Every structure is written in structure tokens, then in C-alpha cells.
């Protein structure tokens, strides 16, 4: 072997040492595209950590029908265009059996046409109702929708006698869909939107929009529809401007990270979220209690961090996938898709899931809890 060949062999050996283990042909390949970095990182980071932890656990227990799970994952850095590229790679090069992800609505919608064309089961972790309406044959989702969030929030506002609301939404896919659904739900529920402002996902200050809202005559409450870091910036600006109106957020901030980022300014803010955030306060006979407390304990022990509903969405997607593969008797994509659609009575961190040909999410409004931030923690609102 000449010097050139020796150098090539050494380089190849060094490269192989830095790469993850290659999935075996017999492995069940679970693909994932998540926003582990970028503005949506506090959603994507716990999603990836959850998938990694539970893939490891499932494999340690013998895998699925004797086959190990291989997690093939990519970070789209909160960029929908990158998500599209990684989606193609998962389908064409990695040849995965199923895909989990799209942390964000933008990433999900960028990948949806790919999985529809290729016929690959896809479980999204994004919130917008557009992910599953209209129903797409190969696309499912685990989080509650933006429409459900608007319905839950406005029901709570009406109980408090609030009917004139200012909306501040993000220009991301989730924010745009949330704005559209909020407008429709407000009209249906007798809520008047007296202001309608927007902000960018990477904006560092929203005082201009909030100053406009503050000056609107008769405004009684403010609803922020966004995800990631933006809503925390809004919340801090809200306090800095001395706005005393009730503040509502969407389920796009249902994480301890939001409280850390917003600090004391988050006190009193309300939002709808899964029961995972208040797991210990659930009654003993609640069917979700063992699921959410078990996940919360395992996650905190491994990562020394509190759980978020976003990691919970990833856990639900993985366990729905595993259950569908078991029911399908393997990884035949059409059979797995059919098994997902036939899911009934699945108890996850987001609620009890009952899917059908007309419903590829399977959650109703009872799966949402209204929470308020008090003394730096989540509290159930009765």
C-alpha cells in the first residue's frame, strides 16, 4: 500500500470513529427532524432528549418484536427549508420506516408533501391545525391544535368577564395559523379582537407593538400566539411597560424554560397545556397520572431538568409508533399507517388519543388544562 492509500485509509478510519453507529438492516429505523437549535430550541431540545432516552430504554428491554430501534435524527436549526432537505435525506438515503418531527409548523408543512408522495408514516410535533386539516393520508400529530388553544383561552376569558382582546401573534407558521384560528374562534364565541399586531420569531424587542396595544380604548386582555423565545420577550416587555391587563399565552410556551426566560414578568400569565406540567397534582384515579409522573421522573433523573410538554409530544409520537408497528406485525408502511389511524384509548402525556380516518390527532378539548404561573410555577386554574 503506497503513502497515498495509507493516508486515505487513516482518514476513513478517523471519520468512522466520529460517526454514530450505522443502523443494521434488521433495525427499525425511526427518523426525526427537530429544531434542536435556533428560536424553537427549547421545544426541539427536550424532544430529541426524550426520543434518545426512550429508544435506549426500549432497546434495553428487547426492542420491538425482537428488533432494535435505530434513531436517525437531524437538527433543522428552526429552518423550514433545512427541514425539507433533511426530510428528503431520511426518505431517500436513510430509508427510514417512519418519521417523527417537524418541531414547528413550518418544518412540518415543508416535509408533509414529501411523506405523502413517498408513503412514509409521519407524526408531527407541531401545533397548528393545518397539519391535520384537511386530513393527509400519511400525516398525524400529537400536540393539541391552535384552534383548541383559542377555544380554551376564550372560554376562560368569558368566565372572567373579558370580551375585548388584543392579539399579538408571531409571523412563523405556528403564529400565522394561530392568528387565523383565533380570529375565527373569537367570532364564534363572541370575543371582540380590538387589536391585531404581529412580531418576527427572531425579534429582540416588541415594545412598539405592545405600546400600540396599551393605547387601544377598552382592551381588557392580551393574547400572545407564538413559540420559543419570542413570547418570553413579549412578557418581559409587557412588565417593563407596566401593562396590568390579564396576559394569556398559547400552548407554544408550555415549558419551564419559558418561566426561566420570562422571569418574574411571567407571574399571573395563563395558558392551556397538557397535564404533564402539573403531573403531581392530578388525582390518583386520573388515567394520565402514571404516564406523566413516570415520564417526569425518568426525564429529570437522566437530564437534571424539568420536563416540558414538547418532550411529552415526542414521547407520545414514539410510543404511538411502537404500538402501531406491533399491531402491524412489522414495518410495512401501509400497515403501520393503518394501525396509527386505528389508535383508540391510547393514554399519552397529551391526553387520551382516539384517532380515525377523519381525525389524525385524536384529542378533544378535555385534554387541555388551563394553567396559571404563580410563584414561578404552574398551577391549575379551576
Automatic annotation (TrEMBL):
- All copies of the Leucine-binding protein domain together span 28-362
Q: InterPro entries from the entry?
A: BCAA_transport, Leu-bd, Leu_Ile_Val-bd, Peripla_BP_I
- Key words, A-Z: Amino-acid transport, Signal, Transport
Signal sequence extent? 1-23
Q: From what superkingdom does this record's organism come?
A: Bacteria
Q: A biological process (GO) annotation for this entry?
A: amino acid transport
Q: Would I find Transport among this entry's keywords?
A: yes
* PANTHER family, alphabetized: BLR7848 PROTEIN, LEUCINE-SPECIFIC-BINDING PROTEIN
- Protein family per UniProt: Belongs to the leucine-binding protein family.
UniProt name for this protein? ABC transporter substrate-binding protein
Which species expresses this protein natively? Ramlibacter monticola
At the highest ranks, the source species' classification is:
Bacteria, Pseudomonadati, Pseudomonadota, Betaproteobacteria, Burkholderiales
Amino acid at each position: 500500500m503506497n503513502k497515498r492509500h495509507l493516508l486515505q485509509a487513516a482518514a476513513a478510519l478517523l471519520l468512522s470513529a466520529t460517526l454514530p453507529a450505522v443502523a443494521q438492516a434488521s433495525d427499525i429505523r425511526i427518523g426525526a427532524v427537530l429544531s434542536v437549535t435556533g428560536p424553537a430550541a427549547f421545544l426541539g431540545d427536550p424532544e430529541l432528549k426524550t426520543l434518545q432516552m426512550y429508544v435506549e430504554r426500549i432497546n434495553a428491554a428487547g426492542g420491538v418484536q425482537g428488533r432494535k430501534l435505530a434513531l436517525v435524527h437531524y437538527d433543522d436549526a428552526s429552518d423550514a427549508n433545512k427541514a425539507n432537505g433533511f426530510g428528503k435525506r431520511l426518505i431517500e438515503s436513510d430509508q427510514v420506516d417512519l418519521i417523527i418531527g417537524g418541531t414547528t409548523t413550518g418544518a412540518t408543512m415543508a416535509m408533509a408533501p414529501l411523506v405523502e408522495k413517498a408513503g412514509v408514516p409521519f407524526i408531527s410535533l407541531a401545533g397548528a391545525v393545518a397539519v391535520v386539516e384537511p386530513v393527509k393520508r400519511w400525516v398525524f400529530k400529537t400536540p393539541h391544535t391552535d384552534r383548541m388553544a383559542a377555544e380554551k383561552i376564550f372560554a376562560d376569558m368569558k368566565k372572567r368577564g373579558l370580551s375585548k382582546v388584543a392579539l399579538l401573534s408571531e409571523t412563523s407558521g405556528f403564529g400565522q395559523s394561530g392568528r387565523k384560528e383565533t380570529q375565527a374562534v373569537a367570532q364564534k364565541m363572541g370575543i371582540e379582537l380590538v387589536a391585531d399586531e404581529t412580531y418576527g420569531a427572531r425579534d429582540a424587542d416588541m415594545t412598539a407593538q405592545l405600546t400600540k396595544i396599551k393605547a387601544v380604548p377598552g382592551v381588557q386582555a392580551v393574547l400572545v400566539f407564538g413559540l420559543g423565545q419570542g413570547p418570553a420577550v413579549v412578557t418581559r416587555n409587557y412588565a417593563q411597560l407596566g401593562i396590568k391587563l390579564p396576559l394569556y399565552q398559547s400552548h407554544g410556551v408550555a415549558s419551564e424554560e419559558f418561566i426561566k426566560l420570562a422571569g418574574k414578568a411571567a407571574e399571573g400569565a395563563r395558558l392551556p397545556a397538557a397535564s404533564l406540567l402539573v403531573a403531581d397534582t392530578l388525582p390518583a384515579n386520573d388515567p394520565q397520572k402514571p404516564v406523566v409522573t413516570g415520564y417526569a421522573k425518568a426525564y429529570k433523573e437522566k437530564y437534571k431538568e424539568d420536563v416540558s410538554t414538547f418532550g411529552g409530544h415526542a414521547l407520545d409520537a414514539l410510543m404511538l409508533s411502537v404500538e402501531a408497528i406491533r399491531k402491524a406485525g412489522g414495518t410495512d408502511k401501509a400497515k403501520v399507517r393503518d394501525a396509527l389511524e386505528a389508535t383508540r384509548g391510547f393514554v399519552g402525556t397529551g391526553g387520551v388519543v382516539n384517532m380515525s380516518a377523519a381525525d389524525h390527532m385524536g384529542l378533544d378539548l378535555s385534554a387541555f388544562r388551563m394553567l396559571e404561573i404563580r410563584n414561578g410555577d404552574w398551577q391549575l386554574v379551576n
